[in-house]
């Protein structure tokens, strides 16, 4: 069910949500968090689709904030809020409110969002594209326990990565880091099997890949060795090589969903290592809302120097 409201207010939106749930016979129970998505028109569809897919694991109220560009003098002087409300099958297992702000309302989106938050539930803010320099001090970011960005959305991701490191606050995370979960799990499992000391390391990836840089920093912090950054044709991270006295430990994924694991003195084996869709990455981030200490260590390139 969809409800469109033009030149509306937060109180009218709340009233429409209640009426929509009543019309389809669905109570506002079972939703575990509020997800705020701050995006533009171009990326709104894909972002909403990913959030709705993730809501099948984490039922939530999704508030999509789209700040419309000023085009005319009337836009600059006339503040307006339009809303599109989706409940039932139109919104996954939760409910979605698309908020389009005009004029001065765009500068105070937090005052629009605040009355629409689920009571006594965690808040997550996700910026699929452009994001503020300091996430925790942003008016919308300040409402959240978890703040999600994506370095892949930027033309110069490594410069933005350094920006994220300078302004990191507990609760910040990035999908470039989430994409590494399977890589980190497999590397940890490989070292558990090999039980050898790593003396050198290299990460192979396409140039300026933010996931590769985070993985290299994480390995440096955890293993206490210098990690070389090696260029490859991609896509994304294609290989990790760990040098030991007995030979190399290698995870190689040149393309496709399969990788090859090579351990010294053992036959090679095939591993599933697919590139996961955004909905799976978001669902993973919603499983824990506390501070991700390993992300902070990788982001800053510091931390404990011990075996994985």
Could you please describe the fold and organization of this structure?
The protein is an alpha/beta fold. The chain has two domains: 2-174, no CATH class; 181-275. It contains ten helices and 14 strands. It has helices at residues 10-24, 41-54, 73-77, 109-113, 157-166, 175-178, 181-194, 210-223, 278-285, 293-300, and strands spanning 2-5, 33-39, 60-67, 80-87, 95-102, 123-126, 146-149, 172-174, 198-205, 227-231, 237-244, 247-252, 258-262, 269-272. An eight-stranded mixed β-sheet has the order 1-4-5-3-2-6-7-8, with helices on both faces. A six-stranded mixed β-sheet has the order 10-9-11-12-13-14, covered by helices on one side. Helix 2 (41-54) links the parallel strand 2 and strand 3. Helix 2 crosses helix 9 and helix 8 packs across helix 10 (293-300). The protein is elongated and about 70 Å long. Mean pLDDT is 89; it is low at 303-308.
Summarize this entry quickly.
Helix content is 31%, strand content 27%. It has 308 residues and is α/β, with parallel strands linked by helices. The strands form two sheets. The chain has an eight-stranded mixed β-sheet, sandwiched between helices. A six-stranded mixed β-sheet has the order 10-9-11-12-13-14, covered by helices on one side.
Specify the structural class.
Answer: alpha/beta
Terminal Cα span: 49 Å
- Kindly state the mean pLDDT as a whole number? 89
- Total domain modules: 2
Strand count: 14
SSE topology string: EHEHEHEEHEEHEHHEHEEEEEHH
**Rg for CA atoms:** 22 Å
Unreliable spans are: 303-308
Helix percent band: 25-40%
Q: In what order do the strands lie side by side in the largest sheet?
A: 1-4-5-3-2-6-7-8
What's the overall geometry?
elongated
- Which strand-content bin applies to the residues? 25-35%
Number of helices: 10
Largest sheet descriptor: 8 strands, mixed
